[in-house]
Amino acid sequence: MTTQARIVWDDSFTGYDFGEGHPMNPIRLDLTARLCRGFGLFDSECEIVAPDTPDDSVLARVHSPEYIDAVKHASVEPGRADSRFGLGTEDDPAFEGIHDVSARIAEGSRAVAEGVWRGEVAHGVNFTGGLHHAMPGSAAGFCIYNDAGVAIDWLLEQGVERIAYVDVDAHHGDGVERMFWDDPRVLTISIHETGTVLFPGTGFPGDLGGPGALGSAVNLALPPGVGDAGWLRAFHAVAPAVLRAFRPQIIVSQHGADSHFRDPLAHLSVSVDAQRILAESLHDLSHELCDGRWVALGGGGYEVVSVVPRTWTHLTAVALHRPIPVDTAVPQGWLDDVTERLGEQAPEKMGDGASEDGRIWWRSWEVGYDPEDPVDRATMKTREAVFPHHGLDLWFD
């Protein structure tokens, strides 16, 4: 019998720790796992895996040997990390053991992708992953090894012909896009805050992929301040049509929670309610298009108590086919633990009160394009750039 979901977790993953004061606080992972347990999600219907450190050859398919060596050196001597490889910087400080924990996160995403592709599990979740900024030869944006890239590369090695990567982090999924820029077998879709105001400063509508894969890179760059209705409208005006045209055999998605209105590093204004809806949308598309083959990853998210744990617990619950209504009370034991350990009062409900019966109203693209709306203008730029490459109608698909 197929297990419903394979989930990557072990307490040791909190060792991905850049140090006190760094935005990527590993407690967000611990609190997510504890909240999942509080809802009984880590039970017999799922398989919890804690991968070992993979052989360097797994990483070397997407990262240069020189970079891997530099990370391993920084693991032993953090104070002598080589900044030429993006290590020992303000964004990516080196720490003891940085290679092992980063490599294990990458192996986790590869392992859940393997389970999904081989039919051992229906869905895979690695909320410790989604480290989409790591480049072939350098660390970037709090990301050491690109676990999504490792998973996608493994799938290609197995002969998978069409893989869709969908990234809804507030920051552009630049590292994954770079790795598969000229590969028509991989469709990368990134919906993010415009690079004119936000790191990494890339991901514009005209960035369409290499000469051998034009249209395989899809970038929807949204203006600051976009809320639930605009965010969901933009996603649904672009991603489903392109995915249906591409016909992926598996979907890998990245669910950075930094689109939230409380996130300190980005400028979007999205609720946990909308993030849950989008996770459900990608889950539904996986069942519509590729027999449910879906690998869901974490990513950014720097409001580590009020936002990240709820968002990724929803993601895990959706993958388990046990969605949690947004008006559900957060388990009291989890709230008490947060107060005792962190001195904070976390939200008491699993949503932000932004939806009614778990639904948020947004205008579908079919009701018309509003040239005065900055979200519609951004969306239209992406449709104009991308849709012709997929044989899609600019106005109706």
Structure write-up:
This is Acetoin utilization protein AcuC. Belongs to the histone deacetylase family. The protein is of the alpha/beta class. The protein has one domain (3-390): Histone deacetylase domain (Arginase, Chain A). The chain contains eleven helices and eight strands. It has helices at residues 27-38, 56-59, 65-76, 98-117, 147-157, 174-179, 228-246, 272-290, 308-319, 332-342, 374-386; strands at residues 3-8, 46-49, 121-126, 163-167, 186-193, 217-222, 250-254, 294-297. The chain has an eight-stranded parallel sheet, sandwiched between helices. Helix 1 links the parallel strand 1 and strand 2 (46-49). The two termini are 38 Å apart.
Number of distinct helices: 11
| Reported CATH architecture | 3-Layer(aba) Sandwich
Q: What topology, given as strand order, has the largest sheet? A: 2-1-3-8-7-4-5-6
Output the CATH topology: Arginase, Chain A
Regions with pLDDT < 50 over 5+ consecutive residues?
none
What integer value in Å does the Rg equal?
20 Å
**Helix fraction?**
25-40%
Per CATH, the class reads Alpha Beta
Q: How many domains would you count in the coordinates?
A: 1
Strand content of the residues, in percent? 5-15%
Looking at this structure, what is the CATH superfamily?
Answer: Histone deacetylase domain
Give the rounded overall mean pLDDT.
Answer: 97
Biggest sheet record: 8 strands, parallel
Family: Belongs to the histone deacetylase family.
Protein name: Acetoin utilization protein AcuC
InterPro entries: AcuC, HDACs, His_deacetylse_dom, His_deacetylse_dom_sf, Ureohydrolase_dom_sf
Keywords: Acetoin catabolism
